[in-house]
Amino acid sequence: MAYNLKGRHFLKLLDFTAEEIQFLLDLSADLKKLKYAGIRPRNMEGKNVALIFEKPSTRTRCAFVVAAVDEGAHPEYLGKNDIQLGKKESVADTARVLGRMFDGIEFRGFKHETVEELAKHAGVPVWNGLTDQFHPTQILADFLTIIEQKGRLKGIKFAYCGDGRNNMANSLMIGSAKMGLDFRIVAPAGLFPDKELVRQAEEMAAESGGSITLTEDVSKGVKDVDVIYTDVWVSMGEEEQFAHRVDMLKPYQVNSDMLKMAAPDVTFLHCLPAFHNRETEVGEDVYQKYGVGEMEVTEEVFEGPHSKVFDQAENRMHTIKAVMVATIGK
Ligand code: CP
Ligand code: NVA
Fold first, then answer.
1. Yes or no: domain 157-225+227-261+267-305 corresponds to CATH 3.40.718.10
2. Catalytic residue list contains 270
3. Of 117, 129, 189, 313, which residue is least crowded by CB atoms under 10 Å?
């Protein structure tokens, strides 16, 4: 079934129906097949897209750039020191200026309110490339990867382990509630998601046939699950939290003992970047300070046969392409 999403913003999954999300996933799979076949439909010929990044990015930035170029559009990267956004020019004024020149605007940044404010004033579709509350384009890539691995979303037993109240946990919970997954947050109670968001998720899960469980108990949370997902213990902008989080989240590390509790063909996913060894400056620093050389996932699991994290990373591009084609394509 096709849904007309032309002119729509993509700010959070709460704004979309299950059918619209499924449409974006189907379109992503179609665009992926076309790219593999060497067919370039150039659905965005002559369009220009602005990519605003207040925070660093590898996958999201590159996915937007490659997807735009594949479809014939021009992407313009606007880093945090390139424009005045919020410093010498209000978000509303910047939005109105960019909206006069560009056909769509991506925003990655700190406050979710900023992306909502951009959307209110831009007059063209605005896409959320990650805020403190939500990371909706990531969830499309995650779901496409699950469909590729398991053939479906409905009824999939999904455990998210770690920081249960960050942008990834929030977005996965909402996406799972809409699409009918058996979704579990496996985290210390101090890091459970916001109560109102959980209430909304439970309401949507009741409609879709899914379920939402919050548990501190790892063995209960990951028992027989089809998918184990984790994210960094400390998100961008919260760097002062390391000491506290390492202590709190060590029992929720995804390791081979945890995998043994899941279904034998469990898929491991991570939005990346990941701290699975000491080969990063931050990873080494955390090791020197707290004696933890692998954080949210061990090297063994990350590099092991259950890990599909690089399929998932590639799918960022196909799914972001679908979001742009659906909202501003010809
Ligand atoms: N997963 C993700 O958003 O990665 P980047 O921070 O590299 O964009
Ligand atoms: N929760 C992470 C996601 C990175 C893609 C962060 O916000 O830093």
1. no
2. no
3. 189
Q: Check pLDDT > 80 for residue 43.
A: yes
CATH number of 13-134+314-328: 3.40.50.1370
CB-based contact 187:250 (threshold 8 Å):
no
Question: What is the Å distance from ligand 2's center to 112 Cα?
Answer: 13
- Common-topology check for domains 13-134+314-328 and 157-225+227-261+267-305: yes
Q: Is the pTM of this model over 0.70?
A: yes
Local structure of 323: helix, strand or coil = helix
Give the model's confidence band at 2: pLDDT under 50 very low, under 70 low, under 90 confident, else very high. confident
123-133 pLDDT, tens digit per residue, is 999 999 999 99
**C-alpha torsion sign, points 77, 115, 43, 36:** positive
Percent of the chain with pLDDT strictly greater than 90: 98
Domain boundaries in the chain? 13-134+314-328, 157-225+227-261+267-305
Ligand nearest to the CA of 271: 1
pLDDT recorded at residue 80: 93
The tokens describing 238, both together, are 């919260």
